[in-house]
Design brief:
elongated, mainly alpha, 144 residues
Length: 144
C-alpha cells in the first residue's frame, strides 16, 4: 500500500471536516427553527466525532494535520455572510449547508479516486464521512 496516498487522503478528509464544523458554526446563530437548530447541533457533534477518528488515524500514520486553505475559508465566510445579510432565514441556512455538503461529497469522491492506494480503513472512514454529508443534505431538503 502506498503510505503517501493514505496520509494524503487523511489530510484532505480532515481538512474538509474542519470546514464543515466551521460552516455549521458560521450559520448557527441565524437559525430560527428549533428542529433545524437541533439538526445542526447533532451534525456538529457527528463532525467532531469524525474529526476525532481522523485525528487518531493521523497519529497512527504520523501525518501532519492540514488546515483548510485560507482562500477557501475566506470565500466560504464571505459567501455565507453575504447570503445571510441579504436574507437571514432558515431557507438560506439550509441552502448554504446543502451547498457545503455537496462540495464536500464531490471533493471526497475525487480524493478517493485520486488516492486509490490508500489503506482500506482510511477509505472506509472517508466513505462514512460521505454518508454523513449525504444524510445532512437529505435533512436540509425540508428547509429549502
Amino acid at each position: 500500500m502506498n503510505n503517501d496516498d493514505t496520509i494524503n487522503l487523511l489530510r484532505e478528509c480532515n481538512s474538509g471536516i474542519k470546514m464543515g464544523i466551521s460552516a455549521i458554526d458560521d450559520v448557527f446563530n441565524s437559525v430560527s427553527d428549533h428542529e433545524l437548530s437541533d439538526i445542526l447541533i447533532d451534525a456538529k457533534k457527528e463532525h467532531e466525532e469524525l474529526e476525532n477518528d481522523l485525528s487518531k488515524l493521523m497519529l497512527e500514520y504520523n501525518a501532519d494535520e492540514k488546515e483548510p486553505g485560507i482562500m477557501a475559508k475566506t470565500m466560504s465566510w464571505i459567501k455565507t455572510n453575504a447570503k445571510l445579510a441579504k436574507n437571514e432565514s432558515d431557507k438560506t441556512v439550509a441552502s448554504l449547508i446543502t451547498d457545503g455538503c455537496n462540495m464536500g461529497i464531490k471533493s471526497l469522491h475525487r480524493y478517493l479516486n485520486q488516492y486509490e492506494q490508500a489503506e482500506n480503513k482510511v477509505k472506509e472512514l472517508v466513505r462514512k464521512t460521505i454518508n454523513v454529508e449525504e444524510h445532512m443534505v437529505t435533512k436540509m431538503r425540508k428547509y429549502l
